[in-house]
Amino acid sequence: MSYQLFLTLISGMFIGGVAGYLGTLMLSKKMSVVAGPLAHLALPGVAIALLWGFSISLGAFPFVIIGAILIWILEKKTKLPMENLAAIIFASGVGTALLILPIGKAEEALVGNITTITPLETLVTVALSLLVFYVVDRIYKKMMLMNVYEDLATVEGVNTSLYNLLYLLSIAVVVALGVYLVGGLITVALIAIPAASAKNISKGLLSYKISAVAFGILASIAGIIIAQFTQLPTGPMVIISGVVLFLISIIFHKKTF
Amino acid sequence: MVRQLKSLNMSNMLLEVKNLDVSLDGEKILENLSFQVKQGEILTVLGPNGSGKSVLLKTLLGFLPYEGIIKWSKKPKIGYLPQGLNQLMIKDFPLTVQDFFALKNIPSKNKEIEKYLALVGLEKDILFKKAGSLSGGQFQRMLVAWVLISHPEVIFFDEPTTGIDIGGGETVYSLLHNIWKQEKLTIFLVTHDLNIVYKHSTNVLCLNRKGYHCFGTPKDILSMETLEKVFGKEIKLYEHN
Predict the structure, then answer these.
(1) Is the Cβ–Cβ distance between A213 and A17 less than 8 Å?
(2) How far A240 CA lies from chain B's nearest CA (Å)?
(3) How many CA atoms are closer than 13 Å to the CA of A150, on its beta-carbon side?
């Protein structure tokens, strides 16, 4: 195995795993799709990175972080659903990107460029993935209780505003990493698909979490390797692997009613 | 003697509300409301739909802004059974009953959970069932256990599913009444069901949409005259003894 493939696999596994984990929380809040608009918001950042020739993940980060904080502030101010706010954010991201993105170089922004990842970028990716994994793990139970019934969490003494912010920032980091792995257009799938597959086969919380992480990692490995052999783009292949796993999970879907 | 009794009463006073005003979106929901609750009492908040019963509970819980005085004698440990939380709402969550208990601030061991499930009349094998697949009655019992397991001193019970039969003709209210006798809790009960007022409350606070309210023992309050003011003319009262 080449060194480059090794780096690609390592970073792909970590991004896939943490995206799957975060996805379980987002699915239970019925806001898996929020990752989509945020990823599109990364596009102007990616465009700037391409224009000035630095790492596209670096370009994506400030935009999605600001987007997440904007959603948080707007949600507190307007009480509009996060989904709705994300749609507003989405339009501003794509609109801006279309103005400045060099269309000739658009492919990288749309489907990612994980196969050219450097050792330093791999290191940063692994570190950020672990950090987000830790944060999501710490906020998991409280977020889940908030998703079930927010007042119940408030009585339990949960600072819902702080948890929402940590949650949105986690999404932002995963989205920025996801843009690197699969590109801005389909990052949402990285988050939404493993959780959906996991829910199909799980009755309890533990199996839901573990299988989502496993599906995320598996889809990344399969996608990267298949793309390597077929000379097809990596990002879309990762997503297609995820979809195949999802289809398989439907077969094992346990009806609990 | 009278003075002595009075001071004794004051000493186990838990909550004093004076001239409470609550507005939502510019509309006055509660106006000039005053009442007291002693430790170990069951206060029933009675009134028709839209009279501000849930708003009052949420204000007491600290969720809503208000004007006036809400004075707790000490900060009690509160348990809350909100209105509208039922098994259908968490049907889409991959949560077993055990998982649901694990979401609490201080998670309990399975042995402890089983003890409380037994207290509300549930078998322990329910622990590994999906919470969303329980029946309505089972879910209500489970919620009561979920609230009780953290040993609250005060429970806010917001009319979860009125009159839901949870087996053997027992309502969730009589279950709560039994637990109240055993554990010496203070309970705030919201309802528009007159039947349970007689059976289960020490004091009644009635609200209606037109800003009328009254406060007293069930016998004082549940006269035809007061009830007409609260619910309108159509009310029929069957006195329970």
Answers:
(1) yes
(2) 25
(3) 8
Residue with tokens 């004076």: B18
Q: Which amino acid makes up residue B66?
A: Y
pLDDT in tens, A236-252: 999 999 999 999 999 88
- Strand-pairing partners, residue B67, are B21
Q: Which residues of chain B have pLDDT under 70?
A: 1-11, 160-171, 224-225, 232-241
pTM metric for this prediction: 0.84
Instruction: Mark yes or no for CB contact A256/B133 under 8 Å.
Output: yes
CATH 3.40.50.1260 fits A3-189, yes or no: no
- Show Cβ contacts of residue B67 under 8 Å, excluding neighbours closer than 6 positions: B19, B20, B21, B22
SS (H, E, C) chain B: CHHHHHHHHHHCEEEEEEEEEEEECCEEEEEEEEEEEECCCEEEEECCCCCCHHHHHHHHCCCCCCEEEEEECCCCCEEEECCCCCCCCCCCCCCEHHHHHHCCCCCCCHHHHHHHHHHCCCCHHHHHCEHHHCCHHHHHHHHHHHHHCCCCCEEEEECCCCCCECCCCCEHHHHHHHHHHHHCCEEEEEECCHHHHHHHCCEEEEECCCCCEEEECHHHHCCHHHHHHHHCCCCCCCCCC
Instruction: Give the separation between CA A137 and CA A182, rounded to whole angstroms.
Output: 24
To the nearest whole angstrom, how far is the Cα of A14 from the nearest Cα of chain B? Answer: 24
Query: Are residues A202 and B95, on separate chains, in Cβ contact within 8 Å?
Result: no
SS3 content of chain B, % helix, strand, coil (to 5): 35, 25, 40
Name all domains of chain B by residue range, CATH numbers in brackets. 2-231 (3.40.50.300)
Nearest CB to A151 within list B63, B100, B104 = B63
> Which residue has tokens 């806001």?
A31
Closest by alpha carbon to B211, among B58, B27, B25, B82? Answer: B27
Q: How far apart are CA A200 and CA A223, in angstroms?
A: 21
Parse chain A into domains and list their residue ranges: 3-189
A78 CB contacts (<8 Å, ≥6 apart)? A85
Structure confidence by residue, pLDDT tens digits, A53-88: 777 777 888 888 888 888 888 888 887 877 788 778
ipTM: 0.83
- Give which of B18, B21, B37 is closest to B29, Cα–Cα: B21
Size of interface A-B (CB pairs under 8 A): 65
Q: Quick one: chain A helix, strand, coil %, rounded to 5?
A: 85, 0, 15
Test A144 with B78 for CB contact under 8 angstroms.
no
